[in-house]
Amino acid sequence: MRFTSGISVAVAGGILLIGAGPSMASGDVVYVGQFPLGVVVDAEGTAYIGDTGGVHVLPAGASSPTTTLMTGVNPKGMALSADGTLFVEGSALDDQQEKLVVIPKGSSAVARTITLSADAHLIAAGADGTVFVPNPFLGTVSVIPPGADAPAQEVAVGRTPKEVAVAQDGTAYVTNQDSGTVSVIAPGAGTVSRTIDVRKTPDSAGAPHGIAIGPDSTAYVTNIASNDVAVIKPGESAVSYRVPVPGGPKEIAVGPDSTVYVLSENSSLNVIAPGETSVRRSQPTLRNPGHLAVAPNGSVLVTNTADLSVSVFPAQDLGIPALAAVKAQAAQAEAKAAEPTAQASSENTGASFLSNLPVIIGTVAGAILVGAAVLILAGRRRRRSAAAEDAEASESPAEYPERLEVLSDHTPN
Q1: Which of 7, 18, 49, 109 is the most buried (most CB within 10 A)?
Q2: pTM assigned to the model
C-alpha cells in the first residue's frame, strides 16, 4: 500500500514539475548603497541611478556601478536629453532648497545649478534639451530652455501635476493627479493647448501618475486608483482605449519596439505587447519598486527603494510572442486535433509508441525518483515539526520586522 501511494505521489510530482514556471523575480540585482529612486538610460545603454547624495553610473553589462557623480542634491527626478546631458532634480544637501543640476555628457562635474520651487519634481527633457519641471503645489510646469539658468515660462496646468513626458516633436504631456487629466503643451507655447480627461468615469478618482510616449507619439498614462493604463493616440483629445493593469499601476515606460512596461505598487512589472489591450505577462519585482527605464537592447531596469538595489530584467525574460503568432499556433493545434484518427494506421501507431518508449520510461523513472525524494523530505519535516512543537509550545511568536519607510512620489510631499 505504501509503495502504491509512493508511485502516485511520484507521478503527481513529475506532472507538477513539468508544468511549473519561475515564481521568483528574474534578472541581475545590482546593489547601489542607500535609497535608489530615479533611473534613466542613455543611447549607449549606460544607466544613471539616483541615490542619496549622488548618481551611480552603471555601464551596459556591468555588475556594479563604476563611478558615482556627486551632484550636491538628494536626487528625486532625473532626465536625459538627446545629446546625453544629464539633469538631476532634488533638495540641496546644504540648504534643502529644491534645485536642478546639469551635468554634460562625459563629465563628472556639475556645469550649472537652477533653483526651483519647493517640493519634489519628476522632471522630463525634450530631445533639444528643454527641461519641463512639474510643480505639484503650484499647479504649474516650469519650462527651462537649453542653456538657460532659470525657467523662461510657467505654464498653468491641472491640480497636482506629477510627471511629464515629451514627444519627439517637443510636445509635452503632463499628468494632473488630483484633476484626473493630462495637459498638453505645444512646443514653445506658454499655455495648454488641450486637456484630456483620463478617468474611467467623470465621478471616479483615476489618479493619473506616470506617463510615457511611444515611438509613434502615442501617450500611455497610468491610473493608480482605477487600475488601468489610458492610451491616447497622437492628436486625439480623448482616451482611445484602456488596458486593465492590476495592483495600482504607477510608473510606465515604452521600449524601442513599442512594448509597454508598467510598474505596479503591488511589486509587479507588467508587459503589454504593441497594440494589445491586455497584459500578457506579469513579472514579480522586489519590494517597493521605485522607477523603471528601458535600455536600447530591450532590458528593463527597476529601482528597489527598500532593497537598496536595481533589478536588471533581460529582454528575453520579458519577451512575449506576437499575438498573431499565438493565434496561428492555436489554430494549427485546433486543426490537428480535429483530424480523423482513422488516418493513422495501427502499424504507425505501434511504431510511434515503440520509438517513444525510451522517453516514456525515462520520464516515469524520473517522476518516481522525484516522488521518492518528496516522501523522504516530507517524513523528515514531520518529525522535525513534532519535535519543534514540544520545544516551542511555551514561546511567543516572533514579531514581524518593522516596515522600512522610504520616499514615495505617489502623493505630494
Answers
A1: 49
A2: 0.75
